[in-house]
Amino acid sequence: MLPLRLSCRRLSSASALRASLLSSGLSHVPSLGWGPCSLVAATSDLGLPPSAHTLALPPASLAPLAGGGRAPLVHHHMAQCNTKLRELREELLPSWQAQALPDSDRRAHLLRSRLLMNGPFVLAGNWDEAMAVGALPPQAGETATHLGEMLAVVQGAGGALSPLEAHAERAALGAAYVASELFMLSDGSEGFEDTGRFLDERLRELDALAAAAPGGGGGG
Amino acid sequence: MNDFMSAGVHRLWKDHLLASLSLPPTLQALSRSPPAGSPEQPLYAHLDVAGGTGDVSFRVFDELSDCLPSLRLPPSGGKAPQATVTVCDINPDMLRVGAERAVALYGADLVETLDEPPSPAKPLRFREGNAERLPFDPCSFDSYTIAFGLRNVTDPSRALRNALELLKPGGRLLVLEFSRPPNPLLSAAYDAYSFNVIPPLGAAVAGDEASYRYLVESIRKWDDQAQLTERMEDAGFQGVAHEDLAGGIVALHSGWKL
């Protein structure tokens, strides 16, 4: 709790504070949802007055058609997951290269790991809300950017492809990921194992299609 | 006249200003865990400057009282209200108009008018003051709004520095003001409308073409979006951002005291 009349102490810069609010806010999303209430809870974690939650809440995001103030946390989650996924890839690449693990297995592992990052929100029952917010027209562009970055991280675990092949593969991986994300919403299995199997099945289908295409030899 | 000039859209801009304050989750949190401090202090204190007739402040008061229904009850036992809205203007006549409207809407029990002594128990207060040096203690307010008033202040930078002083740490300033449409086509159409339609409209509706011509010219001389952002940053606000409304004819700037 804060005293009402504070001395004017210096706090960290706005961008750093915004990032801290969003990161801390994510920890409250399972219980408080994707809206401003999680950001308000984050102000308490950071020793700020509740009104400071607006620092992480652009006015344009507050309109109902823009997500009612839920988009900042959704997109922050996506950005954080991309960072973690990139770090995971860098950590695993040396051992994968040593084992000569096929590209398809590497991609499957990364996509599965990425799906599990949504796990806490699926269990809390509000991941569908995040997906809906991300699909709103004012948010779709940023959502597509985060998805594109995620797929670039996944593709970066494999060998080089021609631009056309890379583009086609990215679209295919994106489709498999989104389908698995939807499947996960109703997956009650331990550790989302059924989603992992669903994803593997989709990726096998894509590899089979690629192998059957004229001049196709699969992605490894 | 505001309704004629903006085809009533100024109401939407002010609604957007209110929504940007994001009051409901703040008040929910404050009601659950009130800040430590004297029980005479309200949970939330808002200041609206240059808003004599009450357009913005009534919106804020309505939102606060939706979240804190006790705000609408007549004060009892001299107890401090859970939230306050203070309306400040340099023009006492505008304040009297606003106070009359407030009394008609909410009742005299809830409104401290200009001509009565300060009444700490009343949540809606009308006070005369110059935005460059407002008569309040430092770190008194959680939010500060000024709608279509900053460009009329003699020294806007000084007013912004004063705003920073009056806000509590973590507090937010919102400035709703005319700006410059970045799109050249819209800018040309806006200029044509401003110089050829508004002054004659002022003559026809308010009987005062000269004042409305001055209004249009003052808007053209005022800061654009980037200039106001720089002015707010120079005053000490952080995280300054703006949002264009109506294609940039109006902009909503916000900054925080960190």
Automatic annotation (TrEMBL), chain A:
Residues 168-209 form the COQ9 C-terminal domain. InterPro entries: COQ9_C, Ubiq_biosynth_COQ9. Transmembrane segments: none annotated. The keyword Mitochondrion applies. Pfam families: COQ9. Signal peptide: none annotated. Its main location: mitochondrion. It is found in: Mitochondrion. Keywords: Lipid-binding, Mitochondrion, Transit peptide, Ubiquinone biosynthesis. Pathway: Cofactor biosynthesis; ubiquinone biosynthesis. Membrane-associated protein that warps the membrane surface to access and bind aromatic isoprenes with high specificity, including ubiquinone (CoQ) isoprene intermediates and presents them directly to Coq7, therefore facilitating the Coq7-mediated hydroxylase step. Participates in the biosynthesis of coenzyme Q, also named ubiquinone, an essential lipid-soluble electron transporter for aerobic cellular respiration. NCBIfam families: diverge_rpsU. Belongs to the COQ9 family. This is Ubiquinone biosynthesis protein. The lineage of its organism: Eukaryota, Sar, Stramenopiles, Ochrophyta, Bolidophyceae.
TrEMBL record, chain B:
It comes from Tetraparma gracilis. HAMAP family: MenG_UbiE_methyltr (MF_01813). S-adenosyl-L-methionine binds at T53, D89, N130, A131. It catalyses: a 2-methoxy-6-(all-trans-polyprenyl)benzene-1,4-diol + S-adenosyl-L-methionine = a 5-methoxy-2-methyl-3-(all-trans-polyprenyl)benzene-1,4-diol + S-adenosyl-L-homocysteine + H(+). Pfam families: Ubie_methyltran. This is 2-methoxy-6-polyprenyl-1,4-benzoquinol methylase, mitochondrial. NCBIfam families: MenG_MenH_UbiE. Methyltransferase required for the conversion of 2-polyprenyl-6-methoxy-1,4-benzoquinol (DDMQH2) to 2-polyprenyl-3-methyl-6-methoxy-1,4-benzoquinol (DMQH2). The keyword Transferase applies. Pathway: Cofactor biosynthesis; ubiquinone biosynthesis. Belongs to the class I-like SAM-binding methyltransferase superfamily. MenG/UbiE family. PANTHER family: 2-METHOXY-6-POLYPRENYL-1,4-BENZOQUINOL METHYLASE, MITOCHONDRIAL, METHYLTRANSFERASE. Component of a multi-subunit COQ enzyme complex. InterPro entries: SAM-dependent_MTases_sf (IPR029063), UbiE/COQ5_MeTrFase (IPR004033). The lineage of its organism: Eukaryota, Sar, Stramenopiles, Ochrophyta, Bolidophyceae. Keywords: Membrane, Methyltransferase, Mitochondrion, Mitochondrion inner membrane, S-adenosyl-L-methionine, Transferase, Ubiquinone biosynthesis. It is an enzyme of class 2 (transferase). Coiled coil: none annotated. It is a peripheral membrane protein. It is found in: Mitochondrion inner membrane. Its EC number is 2.1.1.201.
